[in-house]
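Why does residue order matter? Because the sequence determines the fold. Keep that principle in mind as you read this record.
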Amino acid sequence: MLLSTSASLAQEKTFLLDAKRTSVHFTLGSVLHTVHGAFALKQGSLRLDPASGKMSGEIVVDARSGDSSNGLRDRKMHREILESEKFPEITFQPMRMEGTLAPEGKSSVQIHGTFSLHGVAHDITVPAEVTLSPSQWTAAIRFHVPYVKWGLKNPSTLFLRVDEAVEIEIEASGDTSPNIGKH
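Structure:
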């Protein structure tokens, strides 16, 4: 999810998500089987002030792109659960980071922000494993979204019971650029 723009951690950093190298997967457990699927990233960029941990920016996922490889299930997901025509975007806006982002190598951090789903923003903290090198960055993020608690419909039926939270896994990567984030 993140991109280092200089060797010094004292300067503001810009982190860009490359849509071609970013995957957003979901897993929903149920009594009979586990559903796996994916969403497409529309765009994403974040800014970090390492001195204060303050972050800004936004990650935008196309809600209409949700695909579990089952047309009937996907139609129900889009029409009845996500209402993706009415709410076409799922967003994350970071506010601050906890932990130290090493200028090179692997770092474990916590990112606090708001996750907007179905038109409503929810406070959330997500763990991120970030690896920085001079030429590229990668990030792995895994967290749960309690969609039923957040007001979305539970798709369970009389015979098929599903979990009330969905697991989200994001794998992101990008190239470093010395010009990104300079004013």
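The longest strand covers residues 35-49.
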